[in-house]
Design brief:
mainly alpha; two-stranded antiparallel ribbon; 66% helix; 349 residues
């Protein structure tokens, strides 16, 4: 509020508000895009370590500039549009995917009060944005005028819808426990005593099973292995993005990693205490909350990379069975468990 008021006093109410908002957006968007570039590098280094390889180690110190070299290569390439493609939809699709991946960060609290838009329905906002993400993939598959991208788009639509149902019930459990849709309030509800028994701000036993369901569903939601069926190279060549090149392909690629980082951030907020230290012990609060939040985010990203390096790809029927016959009834039953616990104990956040 003070930041915005400063610019309003300097430039007037309307222009000052606009300038302050743009600056805040850039303060979030630019580090996120830099984080995406570093996430690609970290992902490749984790895979290399687990497969006893070196990974990127030539461009820049320790290979740190490899991602930027790849981005420059893609930027300088020609964007080739298939002759039978719908040009407008073909070009808009990757823009939608990348834009939605960025605007979701508007409600992510990095620390107490350190958030662009601290809205009361932040969780619903994120759920709505993630639901829209499927449109970019469907549009790219249809507009490419090719069978393989079209099949990849259909696969992605079915996959994302299937696992969003489970994620919805997981979110209901978290909202019941915290009594709020505001992400900052959800973090605050995790502070102190765990179920009135143990001292800690992390891994609530009541919500732990839903944390596992959320993590696996996030893998499917972001098309990460072992659920990367929409872009399975064995049978679909590259799925919905097979006809894309140059920066259009880069936008899909960067959007996917931005979504992965978003899911890591959301996991730390919903289940790991966000910016709170692991236990409610005064000396640990000396460490800034932003540091705790980033440590949890990086820890979750390491697990994402770990899964990709070690778990083989599912068959499509296994993917659908897990979503509809395992996660859906389990998450629905856990809503009843959480509700019963809260009524029995009288605990409402």
């Amino acid at each position: 509020m003070g930041f915005t008021a400063f610019f309003q006093g300097l430039l007037g109410h309307d222009i000052g508000y606009l300038v302050a908002t743009i600056i805040l957006i850039l303060l979030i968007a630019l580090p996120v895009m830099l984080g995406v570039a570093m996430a690609v590098y970290a992902d490749r280094k984790v895979w290399a370590s687990m497969q006893l390889r070196r990974g990127p180690n030539v461009v820049g110190p320790f290979g740190l500039m490899q991602t930027f070299a790849d981005a420059l290569k893609l930027f300088l390439k020609e964007t080739i549009i298939p002759s039978g493609a719908n040009t407008g939809v073909f070009l808009i699709a990757p823009m939608i995917t990348f834009t939605l991946a960025l605007i979701a960060w508007a409600v992510i609290p990095f620390d107490a009060g350190l958030v662009l838009a601290d809205i009361n329905v932040g969780l619903l906002y994120l759920f709505a944005v993630s639901s829209l993400g499927v449109y970019g993939i469907i549009m790219s598959g249809w507009a490419s005028n090719s069978k393989y991208p079209f099949l990849g788009g259909l696969r992605s639509a079915a996959q994302m819808v299937s696992y969003e149902v489970s994620i919805g019930f997981v979110i209901v459990c978290v909202v019941l426990y915290s009594s709020s849709f505001n992400l900052s309030d959800i973090v605050a509800a995790q502070k102190g005593m765990v179920l009135g028994i143990g001292n800690g701000n992390i891994l609530n036993p009541l919500l732990f099973p839903m944390a596992i369901v959320f993590f696996i569903s996030a893998l499917a939601e972001t098309n990460r292995p072992p659920f990367d069926l929409p872009e399975a190279e064995a049978e679909l060549v590259a799925g919905y993005q097979v006809e894309y090149s140059s920066m259009a392909f880069a936008l899909f690629f960067l959007g996917e990693y931005a979504n992965v980082l978003l899911m890591c951030a959301l996991s730390s907020i919903l289940f790991l205490g966000g910016w709170l230290p692991p236990v409610n012990w005064a000396p640990l609060y000396v460490v800034p909350g932003f540091v705790w939040f980033m440590a949890k985010l990086f820890g979750m990203f390491f697990i994402f990379a770990w899964v990709k390096a070690t778990v083989p790809r599912y068959r499509y029927d296994q993917l659908m069975r897990l979503g509809w016959k395992v996660f859906l009834p389990l998450s629905l039953a856990w809503v009843c468990v959480v509700s019963g616990w809260l009524v029995f104990t009288g605990h409402y956040g």
